[in-house]
Design brief:
- 37% of the residues lie in helices and 11% in strands.
- The two termini are 43 Å apart.
- The strands form two sheets. A five-stranded parallel beta sheet has the order 6-5-7-8-9, sandwiched between helices.
- The chain folds into two domains: 202 residues, Rossmann fold (3-Layer(aba) Sandwich), CATH 3.40.50; 163 residues, Response regulator (Rossmann fold, 3-Layer(aba) Sandwich), CATH 3.40.50.
- The longest helix has 22 residues.
- The chain is an alpha/beta fold.
- It has 14 helices and nine strands.
- The N terminus and C terminus are likely disordered.
């Protein structure tokens, strides 16, 4: 006999979805949310220990599981539609990040569609990750405190501090086990089953004509490529350029824009030629394809276009080491042109991994330069939040990184 429809659907789901506010990178560090990853691993391990999953049911999801070249928003919508329990990590930054709130709103909309009783049936399991200042009135925080009202260190320091510090290991393990038990109970006793979750674009505010951040692209269009260049990855507009071809579902500019959105900024993509007005008044990352200088006369034209580039426009030269057509010579020429235009230090991404890892730091650096150099008199800064470290380490710097050696004891006293 075939299993009931609800059971068949739940077999394709997952126990929980972890939602958090992405933090601005610390210097050149690509992964500033390392403790979120540590907590996810711990929670997934504890859920696995307590669970009796049906065949095919996954344990958990957080966005670091999304493949490099995937469509982030589509992947998140699918994961939100699969999860039985939504676990938001509340912090000061969570309530100012449209991306994080969009994840929560998407899951809530899915619960409403399933029936209003689902909103109070434990499918939302908030956690106090970093304490919220008393002057920031967030009613939802009280629900997060329910996890550990008998653990004063939790309300005082948040679960991240308990995760990071060995002195809080006992309290951390208690709350971890308690949260995992709640997740398992809901997922196995009151399963929702996979259902459609609205996409991020459906639940977040649309990008205005004057966004907080710009991703500009300087790449040839398909009809203006040098004769020797393979047209794969090119389109009618430079902003649709895919430097890594079929390995990326979306254009590089869209991925960069998603990175800015995850850091709390509305973002817009544009061809460099059409973005001049925006680049004069908004922080930006400029993605440059070295093949732009391959056509006769292009270097001189490019030099004039780069002259006067604002300090807050941060360039990134993008190539693909897997491309059979070597662009090293063109990349060197573009780097020299950027140096001559007043950019002594220019980043160069040679692989998709490098591109992904560099992007958060570049977005943050552009925003920092904008706040430092933009005119003050008669100038209104964009409304987006300033990348800050308020969701960053709240403990001494030597504790703010995971062990470099797998054999080194974990921060909260366990070996991996």
């Amino acid at each position: 006999m075939s299993p009931p429809a609800d059971r068949r659907r739940s077999e394709r789901g997952s126990y929980f979805f972890l939602s958090y506010a992405h933090s601005a990178p610390l210097g050149a560090r690509a992964d500033s949310d390392v403790w979120v990853g540590q907590f996810f691993d711990d929670l997934a391990e504890e859920v696995t220990r307590q669970a009796r999953p049906v065949a095919g049911m996954r344990i958990g999801f957080f966005d670091q599981h999304i493949p490099l070249g995937a469509d982030w928003k589509a992947a998140l919508a699918e994961a939100l539609g699969d999860a039985e329990v939504f676990v938001p990590l509340y912090s000061p930054g969570y309530f100012s990040r449209p991306w994080a709130l969009g994840e929560r709103d998407s899951f809530r909309a899915r619960l409403v569609a399933a029936g209003s009783d689902r909103l109070t049936a434990g499918h939302l399991a908030p956690v106090l990750w970093i304490p919220i200042p008393s002057w920031e009135d967030q009613p939802e925080v009280d629900d997060a405190l329910d996890l550990g009202r008998d653990v004063p260190e939790y309300a005082e320091n948040g679960l991240r501090a308990l995760c990071m510090l060995a002195s809080y290991r006992e309290q951390y393990q208690l709350l971890l086990s308690r949260l995992a038990g709640q997740i398992v109970h809901v997922a196995e006793r009151r399963p929702l089953g996979p259902s459609r979750a609205p996409s991020m674009d459906e639940v977040t505010r649309p990008v205005s004509a004057d966004p907080d951040f710009v991703v500009a692209v300087l790449a040839p269009t398909r009809d203006r490529l040098p004769a020797e260049r393979d047209p794969s990855g090119y389109a009618s507009s430079g902003r649709l350029w895919r430097p890594y071809g079929s390995r990326q579902e979306l254009p590089a500019a869209e991925y960069a824009a998603s990175t800015a959105e995850r850091l709390g900024l509305t973002a817009r993509t544009a061809d460099f030629a059409q973005a001049a007005g925006l680049l004069d008044r908004r922080p930006a990352v400029l993605l440059v394809d070295p093949w732009i200088v391959a056509a006769p006369g292009s270097p001189a034209d490019l030099a004039s276009r780069l002259r006067g580039l604002r300090e807050w426009v941060v360039p990134l030269v993008v190539t693909d080491d897997g491309d059979g057509q070597d662009a090293a010579g063109w990349a060197t020429e573009v780097m020299e042109l950027l140096h001559d235009a007043g950019r002594p230090q220019v980043k160069h991404a040679c692989t998709m991994r490098e591109f992904v890892d560099l992007m958060p730091a570049l977005v943050t650096e552009a925003r920092r330069r904008f706040l430092k150099h933009a005119p003050v008199v008669g100038f209104d800064p964009p409304p987006g939040p300033v990348p800050s470290l308020r969701d960053g380490p709240a403990v001494p710097p030597d504790l703010a990184s995971p062990p470099a050696d797998p054999a080194t004891p974990r921060p909260h006293g366990e070996d991996r």
